[in-house]
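Running this now, will post back.
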Amino acid sequence: MIIKVCGMRDAANIKEVSQLDIDWMGFIFFPKSPRYVRQINSNAGFIPDYPSLRNNDGDEPSPKKIKRVGVFVDDMPQNIVTRVVNFRLDIVQLQGCENAIMIDNLRRTLEPDIHKGIKIMKALSVASAADVEKYKDYEGHVDYFLFDTKTPLKGGSGNKFDWSVLDAYDGKTPFLLSGGIGPDDVERIREFNHPECIGIDVNSRFETVPGVKDAALLKSFVEALRG
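Update: finished.
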């Protein structure tokens, strides 16, 4: 199972969380978010290259390379490209009303010259089976879906949705569960069963303040889920 920790921006906290058995780390580039990453040059030490976050070709081996996910909401393509380069992003997560044409154009811009193998994930806000059906607009255009709770906040609300509505998802694109997942949801996650579910996304329910995660709480959760 992929475990994605989103809403990271504090260098010391990134170092702590990078030591855990997680797979993806998310950085939010949406100015209205309380977890907005303002600094755009990772070389300035904002997101240092700790071994588990290192993007290289194996010159310096590490236990696990955590993939970097950039979260964008209806942003200009050139802004997305700039952040892919400066933060060496592995995955672009689109959290707004982006359409398939924009996504295809973005991929052609990035692949292969700027970032070979870049992945694109489309977040869909869900409250009902009808919301799930919107995946059909993006099937074949993205590498992953992320199903999140439908709120005006564009993610990070801490609110859950009824996962049973995902029975309506019969697509072939793998997806992550999101939306208010917290320390007490280990059994709920284990009991959820869908052939295309490959992981979870956690954020606000593990925070001490917006953008800073409780590493000890995350560690207990990850170990319980992996165990």
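The first helix runs from residue 11 to 18. More later if anyone needs it.
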